Amino acid sequence: TQGFPPADSDGYRPPERLAVLLPMTGSLAAPSAGVRDGFLAAYYAETRRRPIVKFYDSLGTGNGAQAALARALADGAQLIVGPLTRDEVNAVNGQAGNVPMIALNRGSHSPASASRAESRTRRTRSLIIRCLVSPPLIPLSWEQEKSACRNECPS
Predict the structure, then answer these.
(1) pTM
(2) How many whole angstroms separate alpha carbon 71 and alpha carbon 35?
(3) Both ends of the chain: CA-CA distance in Å?
């Protein structure tokens, strides 16, 4: 997050460039379209400054995810969301360098051996997915959202 622009007065600090890795072709194109549409609905609902978002087709394969990640990094992405499938996550695990990545699935490692950082990533991913799939009817403050996430996704 070091390359992110300075935070607004309320602490909001999005990246300038955000990459989303999803299988946009093949058998997973339809489910990915739902994830993409939910992401874009939340994106356009945001009234503060928004990052430039670019979608990359991960093809639903490990090799496709690696190629999509390489393109995103070459394009200067400062935050990566995705990939979607377990095989894709396994293929790109640890390859983003210093760029934060929020995978939309778990890799094949055991949750029992998860580090604190992996635990935070799981909570963040759960919060993002929960808000994209079923946004709250009553807007919650960030502190309320984090508290709800902690209750739903214990370490």
Answers:
(1) 0.71
(2) 21
(3) 23
Q: Is the distance from CB of 105 to CB of 86 less than 8 angstroms?
A: yes
Phi and psi at 65, nearest 5°, equal: -65, -40
pLDDT at 139 over 50: no
For residues 15 and 72, is the Cβ–Cβ distance under 8 A?
no
Nearest to 84 by CA among 128, 37, 21: 21
DSSP 26-59: STTHHHHHHHHHHHHHHHHH--S---EEEEEE-T
Contact predicate 24/37, CB 8 Å: no
Q: What does the alpha-carbon distance between residue 26 and residue 9 come to, in Å, rounded to a whole number? A: 43
